[in-house]
Each structure stands twice: as C-alpha cells, then as structure tokens.
Amino acid sequence: MNSEQLAWLIRRHGIEMTHISHGSHIGAILSVADIVAVLYNDVANISPLNLKDENRDRIILSKGHAGAAIYAALAEKGFFNREELKTHYADGSRLSGHVSHKGVPGVEFSTGSLGHGACVAAGMALNAKLDNKPYYTYAIVGDGECDEGSIWEMALFANQFKLNQLIVVVDHNKMQSLDFCENTLSLSPFADKWKAFGWNVLDVDGHNHNELRNAFTKAKQSVDKPTVIIANTVKGKGVSFMEYDILWHYRFPHDGEEYDGALKELHEVMPIGITDPYEEDEK
Fold it and tell me: At what angle do helices 3-21 and 26-38 cross, to 10 degrees?
C-alpha cells in the first residue's frame, strides 16, 4: 500500500465512521488524512511489531477530535482489525470520539484538551535527548489549537532544550470550530512566529505527499532546533460540498444526499490498486 492509497482509505473510513456513529469532526478528519497517511506509511518508525520497542517513533495527535483518522490508519496498517472501526464512538467501544490510548494499540496518548498533546510530545522528545535515544516524536497540531498559550510555552521549551527530534506538523486548514482562524484570533504572520521562537520552519502543501515526505526528510537534518511543518490544507478535503464549509466541523454526513454524495466523489478519485472495504463487506 502506498501513502495515496492509505489517505483515500482514511477518508473513506472517516465518512463511514462518522456516518454510523453520528459523530463530529469529519472536516478535520478529511483535512489531516494526507499528513497521517504519509507519517504512518513512509516516515515514522512504528508498526504492530515494535510497539514495545523503546526506540520506536512516537506520533501524538494533539488535535484529538480528528482521532478517527488515526484509528483508520492504525487499522489499515494492521494494528487491529478494521472491522472494529464500525464501533467508533459507540457505547463501550475503545475507539472513543477523541483519540484514546486506553486499550488501543498504536495510540501513545489520549488527547482532546487542545494544546495538551503537543506539550506531552515535547516531553517525550526531551526524554529521547536525555537518554540518547534515536526516536523522533511527531505531534499533529491544529491551527486553531495554536490559540492556546500552552502551544507557545511548548515552543519556548523545545527551543530552550534544542529538541531536534521533535517535529510538529500543523494541519493549517485555516478554520476552527465556528469560523475562519483569522476571524477568531489571527495567527498571521504564522511562520514568522515560529521562527521568532527559534524553530526550523517548513511550509508545504499538506495534500502533496512528495512535499510532505521531503519536509520530514529535511526536518530530520536539523541538529539543534525543533521543526514545525506548516501543512497548508483544506478543511473537508476530498468532498467538494464539505470543503471550506465550517458546518462540517461538527456535522456528520446524513443518510441520503450527503452520505451518497460524499461516497460518489470519493469513488471518482479512488486510487488504482485498492477497493472500497465497505463494498467488500456487502459481498
């Protein structure tokens, strides 16, 4: 499986999981899908075979509300049976709405309180440095999450201790909760803020897998600075009527036109070499 195929499957699972559970955050799930796919498929040293290895890489989804994207990636990479994805957000399911590590193989830390996961990631990176461990810690952060003071405290901390094995990826979809970021609390000039805090800053198209892979490679070449990859994305990416529409932060695809329309658009761009896992289930 390549990263483009995995990204498509993350989007397909995201549509299904939120549709079945009547869960929220499909817009964020779709925007972060390519970042998650490249990380799990091509970059991070993590697999079902090395979950207890102290030298494995760590991935923290600080924007925990997009947890369905992580669950989907883990299922497709063999951490658990993808049939379990159908239990997402159901009573008693271990696949909670915000990503949880409780009993879920491959999830390092439960998140959802914005700003928290990135701080924990910085602590993990400090541990790697103090113990002279080779692993990298990747934190996926939302741009709206960067309204939190704890993000900038983390940025100061990571620079102070020269945490070059910490790589933060900002899913910069320009929207948060109820409006565009610039109308809520302006982040501009965003890259300059990170540079002023002493970070190595890379700016990429967050849906271009080659750009993402190259950015991660460059990030690993940093010897004395943490790196932030500002991944410019589209909220709701892949379903035209969800793109740039803040409604889909909290909404799920309802039966009929919304669900069917989303699937139709996804099927039109299905990569060669994979099939729709839910159509397989019906056979």
Answer: 150
pTM > 0.90: yes or no = yes
Q: What is the CATH number of the domain that holds 125?
A: 3.40.50.970
Average of pLDDT values for 224-232?
A: 98
Residues of the chain with pLDDT > 90, as a percent, come to 93
Please state whether beta strands 179-180 and 175-176 pair in parallel, antiparallel, or not at all (unpaired).
antiparallel
User: Which DSSP category does 81 fall into?
Assistant: -
Q: Cα(219)–Cα(188) distance, rounded to whole angstroms? A: 23
Domain range for 51: 3-282
Does pLDDT of 282 surpass 80?
no
Task: Give the separation between CA 252 and CA 27, rounded to whole angstroms.
Answer: 9
pLDDT for 224 beyond 60: yes
Q: How many independent structural domains does the chain possess?
A: 1
Residue pair 101/110 in contact by the 8 Å Cβ criterion: yes
User: According to DSSP H, which parts of 131-238 are helical?
Assistant: 149-160, 181-184, 190-196, 209-219
What pLDDT score was predicted for residue 280? 66
- Residue 201 to residue 230: CA distance in whole angstroms: 7
How far is residue 173 from each of residues 9, 156, 168, 244, measured CA to CA in Å?
A: 20, 24, 15, 9
Residue 283 pLDDT > 60, yes or no?
Answer: no
